[in-house]
Specification:
The structure holds 2 protein chains of 2 kinds. Chain A is 64% helix and 6% strand. Chain A contains 34 helices and 9 strands. In chain A, a hairpin with a 6-residue loop joins strand 2 and strand 3. The N and C termini of chain A lie far apart (71 Å). Chain B is of the alpha+beta class. Chain B has a single domain, classed as Ferrous iron transport protein A (FeoA) (SH3 type barrels). The longest helix of chain B has 8 residues. Classes of the chains: A mainly alpha, B alpha+beta. At the A-B interface, helix 3, helix 11, helix 12, helix 17 and strand 9 of A face helix 1, strand 2 and strand 4 of B.
């Protein structure tokens, strides 16, 4: 018989760490609330009949944000056999608030008290046995990180799941409230799962609309309940939700008073001292800019480049062509097959894989940022700035996640409360260059701006600028109007990033990149090679007369005003829509390593001769800002839950990319060469239009609309 | 008086929360309930980092202004 265990608990309490330890998975963990936004299941390593479900963190069973709904629905509708409730021992009261609700649901609960090592280190004490007795469930001390006690916790959870004993509820509300709960229970008996009767009754007392609908109560039943609720609200002179919340916390306080002995901790903790600097009113923003500059500088311009140069120039530039090329020649392969392997696969996939070292360095930097606790702080610091532009600071967390990959970045926006903010974040978060765009940045920076360290970080800040400008422009439209959601976020204590965790995150993301390079990119480059080697009559021809050149020449005029109107760049931008790595792969094929090796030049040099630096920067900007990739558009579609919004988002991204790139090329050319043409006029027109949207256009407001219609009447 | 009036290092006791939106409900569930003590750890242009029940929470100014303290 299979047993389903749900891991439930507050955000950032170590559920995913425990999940990974129990199932041997490598789900992503980080040190900020909201790392997990989707439920994941896995089987217990030591007993495959036990299925463990990792749920997004929740503060209560009244969902507030999108990812919390996932957790509540799983617990209430899918009914696991037992709940393993992870409780952060250093934050006992807030964590037990959820625990009391979980126990009410009637599914057997075992509490895993995590971070007990920190409690002991602080010299505090928690009487676990007593705590368990008072709550009416088993409490097991664990350390998810070190793996202490976790097997014991699971064993106990499996045991309670099998025993089918009725859950004993120890927590009681005041007499009047208990009476009302009893009366509501009687009304809904037979309509709701008998195990969870009390939980449903409490929810109805709180006027939870979703539950009212779930139970399909009729009008007279609803009226009866409403009468009971109003009566008790009148006595307490408060609304029912506040009464319940207040009493629950009061009861928890009475429990922790008896079970927890804390040393007096007045004064500043180490985290507080760090926060004094990190969230300082003057230093906070420059510090953030410096950190992000360093992340890009280190990964693209220093450590990463040395490795990438070797991979590009020596490994794929000399070693592979010489040995593999020699071996293939000895085999006496047909010309086309030789071309396919050397120009297509080695040239294309090799060009992409060449950037792996730089990406690994970027992934390490990001993993450190995610693991240390800085994420929640920077969201807080940027809230002040983002709010002015109509976005909440919470939008920044998806953006930092997007620096690694846009797909989880888009999903991370689930933690944003307001629908409009969330949709806007989903639309704009991929402006931030992701890992797959890093090769593009590195290629352009290396080929056109070899001595300038600011190019790579500038791509990042260009992304942020576009997010902010989009925030201002979109907030003025009817679609996104409205105040940003109130901002409240729990700040986890800082800790030193675990080397194992950082390393594992880097490996996971690195492997994902290699997988992509050897699947999607491989297929794309083979296709590109085929199209550029043959004409419509399937005769092997020069690239200039190939099918690909034909296709490229058709779309190239679109990009001419942006400075890269030749067919090669046009084709590369087109393949970039499938996956951004393709762009570099395509250039690899088109400016192939093979011919490169023959005349002694390298890819970067040939490429450098083909475009002006301004055109190259414009090309980079276009490809960074334009539609991210098929996978990200898929994620966008899922999170938007609307085809119309998806098309709007894609259209907006294309238009923005085109306009920004046009302005960069035209103004850049004007400044560097003084050339003024029809393109410059268009760029000026675009600039004026953007200025109008940013500063002059009035925001849409419901009042203004009614005012207009009155005038018309 | 609203929580926004507290200076760095000062603490106060919550009297009530203003406005019954989903956001205020969320604040209650995080432990901002009548009788609870909050202490301001640091302040950044009206946005606050506060201590509540031994943990740190960051709030922006609008949110903090909904939390009313006992005088």
């Amino acid at each position: 018989m299979e047993i389903r265990l749900a891991l439930a608990g507050n955000p950032n309490t170590g559920k995913t760490t425990l999940f990974n330890a129990l199932t041997g998975s490598t789900q992503h963990v980080g040190n900020w609330p909201g790392v997990t936004v989707e439920k994941k299941d896995g089987r217990l390593k030591s007993d495959k009949s036990v299925i463990i479900e990792d749920l997004p963190g929740i503060y209560s069973l009244s969902p507030y944000t999108a990812e919390e709904i996932v957790s509540r629905n799983y617990i209430i509708h899918d009914k696991p056999d037992a709940i393993l409730n992870i409780v952060d021992a250093t934050n006992l009261e807030r964590n037990l608030y959820l625990s009391t609700q979980l126990i009410e649901v009637g599914i057997p609960v075992v509490i895993a008290l995590n971070m007990m090592d920190v409690i002991r280190k602080n010299g505090d004490q928690i009487h676990t046995k007593k705590l368990g007795d008072m709550l009416g469930c088993e409490v097991v001390e664990i350390s998810a990180l070190k793996g202490d006690g976790i097997q014991d916790a699971v064993k106990k959870a499996v045991a309670v799941a099998k025993s089918k004993k009725e859950v004993v509820l120890k927590q009681k509300f005041s007499e009047e409230i208990e009476k009302v709960i009893q009366e509501i229970s009687e009304i809904i008996t037979g309509k709701a799962d008998s195990r969870s009767l009390r939980w449903y009754a409490v929810k109805l007392l709180e006027r939870d609309e979703e539950i009212q609908q779930d139970l399909q109560l009729n009008a007279s039943e609803l009226a009866k309940i409403e009468k009971l609720v109003t009566a008790c609200e009148e006595i307490a002179e408060d609304d029912s939700e506040s009464i319940i919340t207040g009493e629950r916390y009061a009861w928890i306080a009475s429990v922790t008073e008896k079970c927890v002995h804390k040393k007096d901790i007045s004064g500043m903790t180490a985290s507080d001292k760090i926060d004094r600097i990190v969230t300082h009113r003057i230093f906070a923003l420059p510090l953030f800019a410096v950190i992000m500059f360093l992340v890009y500088f280190i990964s693209i311009s220093t450590v990463g480049t040395m490795a990438t140069d070797w991979v590009n120039d020596v490994l794929f530039g000399e070693i592979v062509p010489t040995y593999l090329g020699g071996a293939l020649e000895n085999l006496g392969l047909a010309d086309w097959l030789y071309g396919l392997i050397m120009d297509g696969i080695v040239g294309g996939v090799g060009a992409v894989l060449g950037f792996l070292p730089q990406m690994l360095v970027l992934f390490i930097c990001l993993a450190i940022l995610e693991d240390c606790g800085y994420m929640a702080r920077i969201a807080f610091v940027l809230d002040r700035i983002f709010r002015k532009f109509g976005l909440s600071g919470k939008s920044f967390i998806p953006m930092l996640v997007s620096t690694g990959c846009g797909v989880p970045g888009i999903m991370a926006s689930r933690t944003i409360e307001s629908d409009n903010d969330r949709r806007m974040t989903i639309m704009t978060t991929t402006f931030i260059p992701c890992g797959a765009k890093l090769p593009i940045i590195a290629l352009i920076a290396g080929a056109f701006f070899p001595e300038q360290a600011w190019i790579a970080p500038s791509a990042y800040f260009l992304g942020i600028a576009c997010v902010i400008a989009s925030g201002i422009i979109l907030k003025k439209t009817k679609l996104f109007a409205g105040d940003p959601a109130p901002f409240v976020i729990e700040l986890p204590a800082y800790h030193l990033p675990g080397a194992g965790n950082v390393f594992r995150t880097m490996l996971d993301r690195g492997f994902a990149f290699i997988k992509k390079a050897t699947s999607i990119v491989l297929v794309s480059t083979v296709l590109i090679w085929f199209l550029q080697s043959f004409n419509l009559h399937l005769e092997m021809v020069d690239a200039e007369e190939s099918m690909l050149a034909g296709i490229g020449k058709m779309i190239a005029p679109i990009f001419a005003p942006l400075g890269f109107g030749d067919w090669k760049a046009a084709v590369a931008s087109l393949t970039g829509l499938i996956a951004k790595e393709n762009l570099v792969g395509t250039f690899g094929v088109l400016y192939g390593f093979e011919e490169v090796a023959e005349d002694g030049e390298e890819l970067w040099a040939t490429l450098g001769a083909a475009y002006t630096p301004v055109a190259a920067y414009a090309m980079m900007a276009f490809n960074l800002l334009c539609v991210p990739c098929f996978a990200a558009v898929g994620a966008l579609r899922r999170e938007m839950m609307s085809g119309k919004m998806t098309w709007f988002a894609v259209g907006y991204q294309c238009a923005l990319a085109y306009i920004v790139s046009l302005m960069i090329y035209q103004f850049g050319t004007l400044l560097t060469t003084g050339a003024f043409g029809i393109g410059t006029v268009f760029a000026i027109a675009c600039l004026l239009f953007v200025i109008y949207l940013l500063f002059i256009k009035k925001a849409w407001s419901p009042e203004k609309k009614t005012g207009l219609s009155l005038e018309r009447a | 008086m609203p929580l926004t009036m507290l200076k760095q290092g000062q603490s106060g006791v919550i009297q009530e929360l203003h406005g019954k939106s989903a956001a205020v409900r969320h604040l209650e569930e995080l432990g901002f309930i009548t009788g609870e003590t909050v202490r301001v750890i640091s302040e950044l242009a009206g946005n606050l980092i506060i201590e509540l029940k031994g943990t740190r929470l960051a709030l922006n100014k609008v949110t903090a202004s909904r939390i009313i303290l006992k005088n």
